[in-house]
């Protein structure tokens, strides 16, 4: 009986009404983004942060330390390609969790690699790729 309830809950369609892109990056997505940066030769911005990323049992860092993760997330999504990859992987994970409606939030950010316009275009392209 418990298994049936478990499966029922997993299979229920879900709505996500307030997900921030950079706050939704899974560990797997962050690792893929870091690999992408390394392959593209732009790992310099992320490697300094990345060793700090592991948060586990016994971790003594406080809340503001944990917000450092957002610096890592920003560094990992600083090009149109990595932003598109991050959006694609994140939307696919929500879909795999049974999410059929999502309000994914992100503030257009200008970096040394892209304009705010390119930021928006990258996210829109990822949405079209995943949702069609
Ligand atoms: Zn919010």
TrEMBL record:
According to its UniProt entry, the protein's GO biological process terms are: adenosine catabolic process; inosine biosynthetic process; nucleotide metabolic process
Kindly name one Pfam family recorded for this protein: A_deaminase
Q: Which InterPro entries match?
A: A_deaminase_dom, Ado/ade_deaminase
Query: What is a single molecular function from GO for this protein?
Result: metal ion binding
Adenosine deaminase domain ranges (all copies): 13-127
Q: Does the keyword Coiled coil apply?
A: no
Catalytic reaction equation(s): N(6)-methyl-AMP + H2O + H(+) = IMP + methylamine
Q: Which UniProt keywords apply?
A: Hydrolase, Metal-binding, Nucleotide metabolism, Zinc
Instruction: Read off the PANTHER family from this record.
Output: ADENOSINE DEAMINASE, ADENOSINE DEAMINASE-LIKE PROTEIN
Give the family this protein belongs to, as stated in its UniProt record.
Answer: Belongs to the metallo-dependent hydrolases superfamily. Adenosine and AMP deaminases family.
Name assigned to this protein = (apollo) hypothetical protein
């Amino acid at each position: 009986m418990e298994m049936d309830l478990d499966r029922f809950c997993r299979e229920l369609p879900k709505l996500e009404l307030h997900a921030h892109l950079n706050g939704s990056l899974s560990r797997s997505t962050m690792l893929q983004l870091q690999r992408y940066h390394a392959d593209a030769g732009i790992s310099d911005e992320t490697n300094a942060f990345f060793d700090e990323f592991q948060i586990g049992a016994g971790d003594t860092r406080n809340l503001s330390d944990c917000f450092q993760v957002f610096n890592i997330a920003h560094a990992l999504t600083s090009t149109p390609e990595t932003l598109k990859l991050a959006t694609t992987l994140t939307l696919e994970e929500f879909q795999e969790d049974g999410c059929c409606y999502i309000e994914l939030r992100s503030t257009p950010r200008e970096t040394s690699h892209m304009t705010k316009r390119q930021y928006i275009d990258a996210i829109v392209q990822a949405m079209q790729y995943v949702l069609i």
